[in-house]
Structure formats: C-alpha cells, structure tokens
Amino acid sequence: MATTHTPYMIYGYVTPEEYLINRGYMVAHKQRKKPSARPSDNVRVAVHDIMDQAAIHNKHSSKLVIVHLADDPLRTPEREYAIAVASNDSNDGLPNSLPDSDIVERLKKVLGARHAPGWFVAEMSNEDIPSRG
Fold first, then answer.
1. CA 96 – CA 108 distance, rounded (Å)
2. What whole-number distance in Å separates Cα of residue 133 and Cα of residue 131?
3. Sign of the four-CA dihedral 10, 105, 79, 48
4. Which of 78, 94, 101, 127 has a CA positioned 20 to 30 A from the CA of residue 66?
5. Nearest to 131 by CA among 43, 44, 34
6. What's residue 125's pLDDT?
C-alpha cells in the first residue's frame, strides 16, 4: 500500500517577486536610503513595510513563503512569494487555523487586495521573513 504525503500548504496572499522588489525600492527611496542592488534586500524591505503597515509584528503571526503557481507544468512562472498567516504544518510556527479576521483585513488593505487570502501549496521550503538589518 502506497503512503500519501500531505503537501505543505499555507494560507495567505501571493505577491509576485517583482511587486516586492519594486515596493522595497520605493520604501527605501521614501526613507531617503539608497535602495539595494540586490533584489532579496528589496524584498526584505518590502515585507517589513507590509508587516509594519498591517501591524503584524509577532514572528509567529506571519511568514514569507516561496510558492510555485504554474498551472501548466511546461511553463516556468515568475518566482512568487506568499505572505502566509496560517499553514497545515504544526512545526513551522504559524497558526494551524485561520487567523482573526482583523489580521486578514489589515493585510488585505495594505496589499490592496480585492479578494480573500487563499490556501496554496508551497513548492519550496518556507523561510521566515528576513530579519531587519
């Protein structure tokens, strides 16, 4: 009998890498800081800005997760991230149940989303939101 493996799933908002890089660049510019030439640094700046604006400061309340969303297995999608606020993994530090509606609403407003967050399979390992520094 074959065993089935439950995929790692997160609940949150998908945000394309390009959006996060551009947002990080704009945030650094507004703060009169020189934007980084490294895309990962700009992603970090953007995520911290999003979390600050949404007032989600507890590291166990949110996580940046890399997701793969290709509908067509032959197509390579742009790398995308999800700002996760829940998951199905009891070991990753995120809640295993849906978050309070106020957290979702604040995050939705900051991201300018028109829809509720959703459940997504995380194809790559999850990573904590990078630390400030």
1. 20
2. 6
3. negative
4. 101
5. 44
6. 46
Q: Which residues contact 88 (CB under 8 A, 6 or more apart)?
A: 6, 8, 9, 10, 96
Query: 73 to each of 66, 69, 95, 100, how far by Cα in Å?
Result: 17, 10, 30, 35
Burial class (CB within 10 angstroms; exposed 0-12, middle 13-18, buried 19+) of 87 = buried
| Residue 66, both tokens | 């890399």
The pairing of beta strand 9-16 with beta strand 126-127:
unpaired
Q: Which residue has the tokens 């065993």?
A: 3
Using the predicted structure, report yes or no on whether residue 30 has a pLDDT greater than 70: yes
| 118's tokens | 């959703």
Q: What amino acid is encoded at 51 in this protein?
A: M
> Mind listing the pLDDT tens digit for each residue in 53-93?
988 866 556 777 766 565 555 555 556 788 888 888 888 77
Dist. CA 119–CA 98, nearest whole Å? 10
Residue in 71, 62, 78 with CA at minimum distance from that of residue 19: 78
